[in-house]
Amino acid sequence: MTTTTIELKPSSNPLSDAEREAILASPGFGRHFTDHMVTIKWTEGRGWHDAQLTPYAPLSIDPANMTLHYAQEIFEGLKAYRRPDGSVATFRPEANAKRFQISAHRMAMPELPVDVFVAACDALVQQDKAWVPAHGGEASLYLRPFMIATEVGLGVKPANEYLFLVIASPAGPYFPGGVKPVSIWLSEDRVRAVPGGIGFAKTGGNYAASLLAQAEAAAHGCAQVAYLDAVEHRWVEELGGMNLYFVYGDKIVTPELTGSLLAGITRDSLLKLARDLGYEAEEGRVSIDQWKRDTENGTLTEVFACGTAAVITPVGTVKSAGGEWTQANGEPGKVTLELRKRLLDIQTGAADDPHGWVHVIG
C-alpha cells in the first residue's frame, strides 16, 4: 500500500438535490458531470504528489502543452452501481488499474500504483455518492480516470510532468431503447490498429483513428464499425469501441488478443461467466468470410458486442460494400440475453459474486 493521501476539498456550492434528480431522470451518456473530480500530479524526480479531491472545474492548459501536440494521453472507463441495500460498488477496478499501467507503459508515461488508482475512484464515488442512480435497470455512475502530459514545450520526447484525473458522469443505457440489435458497418479499407502499434493501449489516438470509419458507418445507417486485421484484411478484430463475441450454439468465441486489440474488462469477464453457465468459451480467430458463411448456414447463431459503456449489445445487420446479412433474424439471442443478465446482476448486486469482482465502497 502506498502512502498517497487524497486531500478532500469539497465544493461549497454543489448542485441542488432537485437539479441533480432532474439530471438523473434522463442522464444520457457522458453529457452531465458530478460536483467533484480527483487530481494527482506526477513530476520527474518527485513522483506522485498533491492528490486532491476538488470541485469539478475546467483545466488551464498552456498552448504548448505537450499532450496537445504529441498525444500522450490515456484513459479508462468503469462504473459504480447502486446495490439493493443502498450501498455503492464498482466492478473490477483493480483490472482497470492494471490496464491503465499497461497503457501508461506503452505511451512512455508514469505508472500509477493500482491502490492509488482505486483510492482515487473510491474517493470520488464516496463524495458524489448521491449521483449514483437508484438500484435497478442499467443506470450507473460512469467513472473516467485519465492522464495527460502537462509539460510545456515542443520537443519530441516523453514529458516530465503529468496530471492524473478522475471525473464521473451519471449514465443511462449507451444504446437507448432497450436491448435491440445494432447494425454494423464492415470497414474493409481502414484499420483500427496494427501489430506492434498502440492498439492494446487505451489511448485517445486509437479512437481518433476510428472516427472517419465511424462517420462512414453512420452514413450507411449503422451504429458501429467493425475492423479487420491490418495484415491480411480478413480476420475480424473488434468494433470501434467494443469487443466482439461469436456464438455457435453452446460455444462462444471472441477474437484472440494479437497486440492490436484492446483487452476489454467486460470481454474477460464474459469468458469466465460463460464457462460458469456451462458454455464452451474460448479465444480464437474468425474470418469475415466465416462470419458471413456461418450466418447463412445457421451454425453461427448469435453475435454480440461488449464493453463497459454498452455492457452487452446484440449485433443485428452487418453491412459492407459488397452486401449485407442479418444475425438471428435481427433479434437478441438466448445466449446474449443470458450472459447480459448474469453480468448485470453481479454488477448491481442482484446476484452473488463468485469471482470477487465487486468492490463495495459504502
The overall strand count is 18
Low-confidence stretches: none
The CATH architecture category of the largest domain equals: Alpha-Beta Barrel
Task: Indicate the CATH topology of the largest domain.
Answer: D-amino Acid Aminotransferase, Chain A, domain 2
Give the fraction of residues assigned to helices: 25-40%
Task: Tell me the name of the CATH homologous superfamily of the largest domain.
Answer: D-amino Acid Aminotransferase, subunit A, domain 2
Task: Describe what you observe in this structure.
It is a single chain. By secondary structure, the chain is an alpha+beta fold. The protein folds into 2 domains: 165 residues, 2-Layer Sandwich (D-amino Acid Aminotransferase, Chain A, domain 1); 167 residues, D-amino Acid Aminotransferase, subunit A, domain 2 (D-amino Acid Aminotransferase, Chain A, domain 2, Alpha-Beta Barrel), CATH 3.20.10. 26% of the residues lie in helices and 29% in strands. It contains 8 helices and 18 strands. Strands 1, 2, 3, 4, 5, 6, 7, 8 and 18 form a 9-stranded mixed sheet that branches. A hairpin with a 3-residue loop joins strand 15 and strand 16. Helix 3 packs across helix 4. The radius of gyration is 21 Å and the shape is globular. The mean pLDDT is 94. Its cofactor is pyridoxal 5'-phosphate. One of its GO terms (molecular function) is branched-chain-amino-acid transaminase activity.
Summary, kept brief:
The chain is an alpha+beta fold and 362 residues long.
Furnish the topology, listing elements before pairings.
Layout: E1 7-8, H1 17-25, E2 36-43, E3 47-55, H2 66-70, E4 73-75, E5 78-82, E6 88-91, H3 93-106, H4 114-127, E7 140-149, E8 161-171, E9 182-187, H5 204-219, E10 224-228, E11 236-239, E12 243-248, E13 251-255, H6 265-276, E14 280-284, H7 288-297, E15 302-307, E16 311-320, E17 323-326, H8 334-348, E18 358-360
Parallel strand pairs: 1-3, 9-10, 9-16, 13-14
Antiparallel strand pairs: 2-3, 2-8, 4-7, 5-6, 5-7, 6-18, 7-8, 10-11, 12-13, 12-15, 15-16, 16-17
Helix pairs in contact: 3-4
